[in-house]
Amino acid sequence: MLANFPKLKAIVAAAAATAALSLSGSGAAQQLTAEVLLQDLAQSEKSEAAAIDRELQALWARSGSPAMDLLLRRGRDAMERGDLQEAVEHLTALTDHAPEFARGWYERARVYFEIGLYGPSIADLERSLALNPQDYNAIYALGVVFEQFRQPERAYEAYQRAKAIHPHHEEVSSALERLKPSIEGREL
User: Fold this and answer.
1) Which of 132, 137, 160, 164 shows the greatest Cβ crowding within 10 Å of its Cβ?
2) pLDDT, tens digit (0-9, with 9 covering 90-100), for 15-36
3) Residue burial 20-58, b: 16+ Cβ < 10 Å; e: rest
4) CA geometry: angle at 91 spanning 86 and 94, to 5°?
């Protein structure tokens, strides 16, 4: 049918090319926005940090695909309901269909950790951090796993790395304070 409308073929091709460019451009714009927000977060006052954190989390939760965003939302909803098997199913579908979307790997790592599947949890955290090395929540989660395996030095290093990115992260600060005496020694 398109053969009968040669100009329509060109229009469809141009529209497809424009859509592809805008999608790749939006990824670059998203990365630039994240970099600016991360710089703001590192230099922020405690009172400003929560708002910047929310912006980053919202940004990192957007895959660029409504269908993938729906899988993420369904996985998170299942986690909140305590249906961890359903959460794994939705998040596995997400990582299968959007393997470059770091948040999908991070969320599935959280579920695996809750189930007690620490090996798959670590693998997903590593994948998430390979895609988004600045995700301080994924770095914090890695520290939690290290603590679970009684590796306080590695946990402490992970927490320090997360704190360097997000100086006002309360859970990270608490973890550092908790581990500090065993890592740095006690004052006499």
Assistant:
1) 137
2) 333 333 333 445 556 666 888 8
3) eeeeeeeeeeeeeebeebbeebeebeeeebeebbebbee
4) 135
- Cα–Cα distance list, 87 to 13, 117, 128 (Å): 38, 14, 17
* Residue 3 DSSP class: G
Instruction: Judge whether 155 and 171 are in contact, CB under 8 Å.
Output: no
Among positive and negative, which fits the CA dihedral 63, 96, 35, 162? positive
Residue 113 near residue 149 (C-beta atoms within 8 A): no
pLDDT tens string 87-114: 999 999 999 999 999 999 999 999 999 9
- pLDDT tens digit sequence for 35-82: 889 998 998 898 899 999 999 999 999 999 999 999 999 999 999 999
